[in-house]
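Sorry to interrupt, but I need a hand with the structure work. Leave the record below and I will have a look:
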Amino acid sequence: MATSPPESLNDSKSTGAPAMALIPIASIEILNPRDRNQRVFDEIVANIGSLGLKKPITVTPRAASGAEPRYLLICGEGRLKAYRKLGQTEIPALVVQVSDEDAMIMSLAENITRRQFRPMELLQAIERLRASGYDTKTISAKTGLSWDYVNGISMLLDKGEERLMVAVESGRLPVTAAMAIVSAGDDQQNVQEALQQAYESGQLRGKQLLQARRLVERRQLLGSSVGRRLPRSKTEVTASSLVRTYQREVARQRQLVNKADAAQSRLIFFVGAMRRLLGDEHFSTLLRAERLETMPKFLAERVSASTGG
C-alpha cells in the first residue's frame, strides 16, 4: 500500500523556501547521532509533554527504494527522540532541500553552536569538517568560531593532541598556550618555558597555571590521548632495566630535594631581609604611609617568629 507524502503545513513549491510538514518519525534517519545527558533528555521529554514542541526539527528528503519517503535529520535529535518516547508517530518538521554535504555541515554546525555540548563532540565536529575538505577560514565562517580558535584546534588535531584539545574546549587551557606547548616539542625545559611565557603574557593566571602544569605532567606520563593507560613495555624486564629505572627515579627525587633546598634558602634569606627592614622605623613608617604594611599570613608568622614578636 503506497504511503502519501507528508501533510504540508505550508506550500513552498513556488518559492523554493523551506516547507513545514508533519513527518512520520519512522521515516527519519539521524544523520549525526550523539550521546546525550540523561537528565537533560528527561527535561526535554517533560517540557515537550507539558508544553508541546516549541521549535520544529529540520530534515531533508531523500530518495527511497520503496514508496515511503525517507528523510535525513539535520537538527533536533533530542526533540525527535523525545517525541518517540512520548509515543508520537509524527513530528512537525522544517523540510529543506539540501545536498548530503550541506546536510552534514548544517548538522555539525548546529551541534557546535549549541549552548551545552561535550568538549569531544565539538572537536569531532571540527575534525569531520576538516576531513570533508573544508579549510580553517570556511569552518570558521560556517560555525561562527573564531579563525584563531579553529586554526589552533586544527594544529592540535594534526598533532594528535587529544588531551590538550579537551583542556582547551573545557576552558582549562587557552588555545594559544596549548599551541605553545605543542611547539615546544618533547623537551620539558622548553615546555616549562612556554608555560612561563604564557603566565607572563597573562594567558595563564592563578589556578589555571597550576592546572596547566598538572596537565603537562599527565601528558608526559600518559601520552596525548585521553583515557590512554600507561603503555606496556614491549621489552623483557631485566635486572639492568630495573636498575636504570631505579637510577632515573633517584635522580628525579634528588632534583626535587635540590629544588626544595633552594626554595628553603630563598625563604630564609627573605625572612632575614624582612626582619632587618621591619626593624628600621623609617622603612616601617614608609610602608604604613603607602598602606603596604601587611604581608601574607605565612610570611608574617615566619618574620614574627624570627624577631620573637
About this structure: The radius of gyration is 30 Å. Confidence is low (pLDDT under 50) at residues 1-5, 7-16, 228-234. The first helix runs from residue 38 to 51. DSSP finds 13 helices and six strands in the chain.
